[in-house]
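Posting this for the archive.
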Amino acid sequence: MDAHELRQLLEAYRGGAFQTEEVVRRLQTAVPFEETGDYAIVDTHRRLRCGFPEVVFGLGKTTEQLVAILGTLRKHGEGALATRVGPETAAALERAYPEGHYNRIGRTFRIPPAQDPGPRVGRVVIVTAGTSDLPVAEEARATADAWHCDVSLISDVGVAGIHRLFGKLDQLHGADCLVVVAGMEAALPSVVGGLVDCPIIAVPTSIGYGAHFHGLTSLLGMLNSCASNVVVTNIDAGFNGGHVAGLIARRAGLARLQAERARPND
């Protein structure tokens, strides 16, 4: 349950659609956490507080732990998203949750929520400088998609062939937020930032040669961007880029929906 659903529940109660007992029952299921084994305390209240459920960082967890943690989230109707999931673990998750989807490139595993979340809200575009940046970009795409945004991907339009980007400009306009993923010298976010009127989440990748310092050069380059609409995540942090972009896009999309609903009928 998130704040929007809680508001709908209380409005329905005020309108007489629900009895007090039904409201109490629904709120009782919104417990703040649940202990899973002796290794995890799953935050089942995060969606109500933050708008989105807890996401599981798969790296360092055993297959059994991931299966159990995702099961706890699934039991509460939230669906589940795990990042940094290897192929062997993904195979076990697919056997346990056949309704789930494994993104092989982005290394994410997604179980859809129990209830239909309705139409997608907010538009996010993911842009990569090169094909080698796709694992990070796909992690961002899977995250924004899990937050039920309208997400699209534009790949391999880096500054070494900038004319490729100019051929895609029509796909950038109208986005609520962009995620620009780049390695090497990471000049792409600055270029894109000078062409659009929305926030850009820049994600540096660890793609590059020796003096690239495993992504540090890209990180510093992005932090020094002269485009004023660019903010930067950590190195290879596709999840963070997709998450923040999803927050921005959904807020913008919901504002448009509310404005449309408030507009008087012709």
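The chain has eleven helices and eleven strands. The mean pLDDT is 89.
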